[in-house]
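Batch job 17 of 40 flagged for manual review because the log was empty.
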Amino acid sequence: MSWRFCSRLDVPKDARRVHKKPTPLMGGLAIFYGFIVSVLCFATLDRETLGVLIGAVIIVTTGIIDDITDMKAIVKLLCQILAAAVVVYSGVRIEHIANPLSNWVGPPYIILNYWVSCAVTMFWIVGICNALNLIDGLDGLAVGVSSIASTAMLALTILSQNLNASILIAAVAGACLGFLPYNFNPAKIFMGDTGALFLGYILACVSIQGMLKMSAVITFAVPILILGLPIFDTAFAIVRRLLTGRSPMSPDRGHLHHRLLDMGFSQRRVVAILYTLTAVLCMTAVVISIKGYMRGILLIVSVLIIVMISVKVMAEIKEPGDNGTYNADEQLMEEEDRDEQD
C-alpha cells in the first residue's frame, strides 16, 4: 500500500489529458507541507485559524484518497461540504454583502442572517475548491494562477492590516512558487486533486478572512475578480453541460485551456495567456480597492484590449512545420527523449 501511495502516476488515458507520459501525481502534498509548516511557525493559532487548518486536513485527505482510488464525485462533494462546515463553525463567515447601488438605493451593506451567512460561505468555499480543480488541466496552470491570486491577496491583506490572514496567504504564495518550477511544462510532477482542492479551499477561506471582512463597500467584487478565471471557467462549464443535457459534474474537453489548445497554441502559450488574464484581473482588484471602481474598469478595459490584440497576433503566427501543423509541445518532448537516450 505504501509503495502504491508513493508511486501513484497520472497515466494519459483519455482525450482530456494533454500530457504524453505517466507523471507522478502526489505533488499537492508538498504544497500542503510547505504551507502548514509556515503557518504553524508564524501564525497565531486562534479559533478561526484552527478551523481553517482542520478543514484543510479534511480537504487534503479527500484529495489523497481521490488521487489513489478515484473517489465518487458525490462523496468528494460531501467531504468538501464537511470541511466548509468546520470553517463556518470556527467563525469564518461572509456576514454581509456590499451593495454596489448604495449611492442610489439601499444601505452600503446587505446584512445576512446567520443561516444565510453559513450557506453563502459554504457555497463560496466548495465552489472555489472545484473551480481550481477544474482549471488544473495544463502543466503549471492551476498552481501559477494560484500564485498570482495569492500574491494579490497578500497585498490586500497587508493593506487591511490583517496580520494572521497575511501570514496564511504568504504561506500559500510561497508554497505555490516553490512548486511551480517542477510543475511547469514539461511537468516533472503533478499536484493532483490533493493540491488543486487544497489551493481552492485555502484561497476561498483567506478571501473571507482577509477581504470580505474589510469595511470597504467594494470588497465583494475584489475576491471575485482575483479568482475570476476559475470562476468563469467553472460557470461556463456548468452552463455548457446543462445545455447539452449532461450532468454538471461530467468531465469534458470544453474548458478554456482546451479551446485555446484547439486554436493551435502550445501548452506554454496557453498558460502564458491565462497567467496574463489572471494578472490583469488581480491588478484590477487591487486598483479598485485603492482607487475605486472607475479607475479599475478603465484599467481592465485598456489591458484586455491589448491582450486580445496580442492573442490575435499570436494566433496568426505559424509555427515552423508542414502547413502550420507543428506542435511545440510534442517537439519539446521529442527533444527530451533524445537527451535521455544520449
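Reviewer: the log was empty due to a logging misconfiguration, but the result itself is present. The chain has one domain: 24-321. Unflagging and moving on to job 18.
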